[in-house]
Every structure is written in C-alpha cells, then in structure tokens.
Design goal:
single chain, 198 residues, alpha/beta, Rossmann fold, 7-stranded parallel sheet, 35% helix, 16% strand, globular
Length: 198
C-alpha cells in the first residue's frame, strides 16, 4: 500500500462516516498530498476539504441493514470512479459495505469498538467481523493494542497508523527547567478500558 501511495498520484475511495474527525483527517491528508480522493458515506461531510469528491449513499433505513442494501449503489459509484484502491473505515458497518462491493485492492481500518465490542454481541457479529476482515487485502490499526485484538479475527498483515505526537517535531526545549523531575502524561482518549490507557 505504501509503495502504491508513494509511487504516483492515485485515486482513493474512502468508505467512512463523513461526520467523523478521523475521516476528515484521512481524506484531507491524502487530498493535500495530491491524490484524487473520493469519500462515500451515508452521512453528510463535516470539515472535509471541498477538493474531496463526496458521494452520498441514499437509504430508507437508518439501521445497520443499510450497509447490506446499499452495496449495489456502491458498486455503481466504484465503477464510475475507477479507483486504485478502496479503504473502508470501521470493520463492522462500512467494512461490511466494502466487502459486498467486491473491489480489490481493499483496505480496512479498525477503529476500536468494531473489534472489541461488536464481536462480543453474538456469534453472528463475530462471524461478520471475521468475514469483513478476511476479505481485506490489508488491515490498518491505530495501535498495537487494537491490532492484537484484530488478529483474533484476521491473519493477514496489519499496518500500525498511530495517533500521537511526532517527538522529532515536538520535544521539550533544551533550556527547560527539569529540577522537579516530574513525569507528566496526557491523553486525549476517553478513559475507557477498550483504549488500553492503563
């Protein structure tokens, strides 16, 4: 995947909740890098660059059933775009839709509750997550902790795309007074067990 992104400008089709700040960052990042970015979503975009091509999926149902019923519409959108890759965010909802689109290369990014909570709901949910991840050519995770959970359902390669601070760009100033030797740790995640804050 990295070789494909670095070698030339490509068309990327993201399947994701367009209201999420994570979706905004992914779409805008690759748009700024000069790639042609298409975002397909049931939700209206928030904070997404006007340079990103947006495709709204229509549905009469506002439930998880829509990820199954919109597959035909998605296949038509993909045929029109002719992307170099499709990247679904969230292994349950948009991961289901992406699997049903039957397009490759296909990437799935796990977000957390899709691999921690959804499989625990029932055997059917567990099988759904396994099927969605098995269909992917590659899986991405924002942490090693979450990747370890995803490996319970997926045997292929997982790339870590971490949240966090680039310590080469953001580091303590050399003239800072460290006399107190206090260690301060901050987090912007919810203080919930699923995020591995401990």
């Amino acid at each position: 995947m990295v070789d494909l992104l670095n070698s030339r400008k490509i068309k990327i089709c993201f399947l994701a909740n367009a209201t999420s700040s994570h979706t905004e960052k992914w779409a805008n990042h690759f748009c700024v890098k000069g790639h042609e970015v298409h975002l397909v979503s049931f939700e209206d975009p928030q904070g997404v660059s006007p340079e990103v091509f947006f495709h709204k999926l229509r549905t009469r149902r506002n439930s998880s059933v829509r990820y199954f019923t919109a597959a035909r519409d998605l296949r038509q959108i993909i045929r029109a775009i002719q992307p170099d890759l499709v990247h679904a965010h969230y292994a349950a909802g948009y991961g289901t839709l992406g699997r049903l689109a039957r397009f490759h290369p296909y990437i799935v990014s796990v977000w957390g509750s899709d691999v921690f909570e959804v499989p625990a709901r029932s055997v059917v949910h567990r099988l759904l997550i396994k099927a969605n991840l098995a269909c992917a050519d590659h899986v991405c995770s924002t942490s090693h902790f979450m990747a370890a959970q995803a490996r319970k359902f997926y045997r292929g390669p997982i790339t870590i795309t971490p949240f966090g601070v680039d310590c080469n760009k953001f580091a303590p100033r050399p003239d800072r007074d460290d006399a107190q030797n206090d260690l301060v740790i901050g987090t912007v995640k919810s203080l919930e067990e699923a995020y591995g804050v401990e």
